[in-house]
Amino acid sequence: MTRQKGRITLSDIAAATGFTVNTVSRALKNKDDISRETCELIQNKAKEMGYVRNYLASSLRSGRTRTLAMIAGSMINPFYAILADLIQQEAARLGYSLFILCSRDNPDAELQAVEMALSRQVDGVLITPCSFDSPALSTLRNSKVPFVLLSRYQENTADDCVYCNDGEGGYLAGKYLLDSGHRKLAMLSYRQVVFSSKERFSGFRRACAEAGIPEQDVFYACPEDPAAVLPQLQAWLSMGVTGLFSFCDVEAWNTITLLDSAGIRVPGDLTVVGFDNILGYVQFPKPIPSVDCHLQEEACAAIDLIRKRIHDPSLPPQQLRLPVSFIQR
User: Fold this and answer.
1) Are the C-beta atoms of residues 163 and 140 closer than 8 Å to each other?
2) What H or E segment, with its residue span, contains residue 232?
3) Are the CB atoms for 315 and 279 separated by under 8 Å?
4) Domain containing residue 242
């Protein structure tokens, strides 16, 4: 067959099969009023000719592109990469394409990402904002395009959100360390993460308070300079800290690498607990106990919520807090 120039159209398939353009269109959509035999004949010919459905033309007719945008921190972080993969799977299952953009937790880049998504006429946006006063959120609210906050919760707003119970996760991490016999504990975060850092440490302190641990034996640090992390750890060790809760698994592994380089044994000298349960999705050589925030459930809940908002903008705000569990290793 001679290859035709340009995009294959419904008219081309109609000419090749002898059916009308309307019949071809309905057959490609598996409409009930077209026989199964005719549908298969037309679909096979369309495939043979290299036909690809023109979603832009469909969106012009329907007013929807069946495209979603996800705006996350960075795909270098396995947390975002795994969440994006799970969201893409769920979106594809429901007939949506996913457009992924990275903000690298920079407000200016985040705003550019939102503007890019809106310029592509996406039906909805899933975003992990770097701050609640981000201009990106203001732009989304003004655009009237449906959006859902991922892994973030803000009080007194009408924003839809799906997030895990960070406070309970911090509590479970603290309880694990306490049940393991540790009596001087610390939480380390490489950066302040909006909402999550505060909630996780609050839960961590609650577990320590319930166990009767004095406040002066529970520490927290968020060094601005990465070079200050190891000295902070060494200072805590000299003070008798034996249990460490790391904000997330990626930071936990970074911390363990620093400790190894300094000859400090994990878990011999310091027990390290993480958050996210990345090992539930990808394998790393250093297994660690971790809080499981159930990313599969978050992905499904986020897609379900954005679909509902797209189809019914009048729904009341939905703020879904998902349960967490603890994985011992």
Assistant:
1) no
2) helix 229-238
3) no
4) 166-292
Q: In what order do the strands lie in the sheet with 185-188?
A: 218-221, 185-188, 243-246, 271-275, 290-292, 325-327
pLDDT digits (tens, 9 = 90+) for 55-100: 555 555 555 789 999 999 888 889 999 999 999 999 999 989 999 9
- The b-or-e profile of 2-41 (16+ CB within 10 A means b, else e) is eeeeeebbbebbbebbebeeebbbbbbeeeeebeeeebee
The count of residues in the chain is 329
Alpha helices in 35-165 (DSSP H): 36-49, 55-62, 78-93, 107-119, 135-143
Contact in structure between 187 and 200 (CB atoms under 8 Å): yes
Q: Do 157 and 299 fall within a single domain? A: yes
What is the residue-wise DSSP string for 154-221?
Answer: -TT---EEEEE-HHHHHHHHHHHHHHTT--SEEEE-SSPPTTHHHHHHHHHHHHHHHTT--GGGEEEE
Please answer whether residues 276 and 289 qualify as being in contact, where contact means their C-beta atoms are separated by less than 8 angstroms. no
155 in a structural domain: yes
Q: What is the dihedral of CA 226, 227, 229, 230, to 10 degrees?
A: 150
pTM: 0.82
Residue 184 placed within a domain: yes
- Here the CATH number for the domain that contains residue 129 is 3.40.50.2300
